[in-house]
Design a protein that fits this description.
single chain, 322 residues, 7-stranded mixed sheet, 6-stranded parallel sheet, 13 helices, 46% helix, elongated
Amino acid sequence: MKRVKFAAAVLSVLTAVSLGACGAPAKGSSYTVGICQLVQHPALDAATKGFRDAIDEALPGQVTFDEQNAAGDSATCTTIVSGFVSSNVNLILANATPALQAATAATAEIPILGTAVTEYGTALSIDGFDGTVGGNVSGTSDLAPLDQQAAIFDELLPDAKNIGILYCSAEPNSVYQAEEVRTALEKAGKTVTVYTFADSNDVASVTQTACNDNDALYIPTDNVAASCTAAIDNVAQPAGVPIVCGEEGIMAGCGIATLSIDYYELGRTTGEMAVKILTGEAQISSMPVEYYQNPVKEYDADRCAALGITVPEGYTAYTAEE
């Protein structure tokens, strides 16, 4: 009996060592990381760059990146991550919610890090989300304090009574943000109406309706809206309707102000998490989702001046990177 117990114990130890060796290569090994980015726009581009930079600095010359862009199509995300799974990459970066959803559907074994995902519980349909996804998933969130975003309306647009919230109905994280901001605005005495578009084809027409009905608009960190800011601006500017935005990239394209995070730094944080996973320093199953800690109030000086908006202290003028 003792020999059986001893043999079982040895087998258990050898199995654990074997699994550790397979799942967590030692530092100095080479790795392949698949990057699935939903769409090209400044926020997501910055997150991907920060991710790659952090990994390259920590593991110089050791990581090969397979970076692919889904051009805004969720089905293409599925195709991309299925390729990563077939290639047996060491880790997947899912940049934006549809990419994360596609990756989690494709594999329960390869580590998946999300970035530029607003609310993981909503994105992955996790009831009572406590901050740690578990399994093979973790990442970073681009959620800024939504009550503070809502407060921008009273700070910059105190006379605005009717507020329209504009977003893509296909993005669950936009739905989440819209509900949170609507609650905060209604508590502040605003009348709030929600306007949704199904895809980029009806952005302009829905924006026109929203501008006709409201004093100002709010757009959350919505990927479709972010790729259609020119179309939104072409409607809102002539109508003289100011837009408060969920992130800097959307504001730069069509808004007056935002409380925004730094997506490059968010990407770097995600890259630092990836290094720990690849080298075996940490297990992804126990890594909580990380949040950006220092959001900044920014404003677009030209649009604010054109609309006669006085910007109080505490806001930084947005400057486009060269």
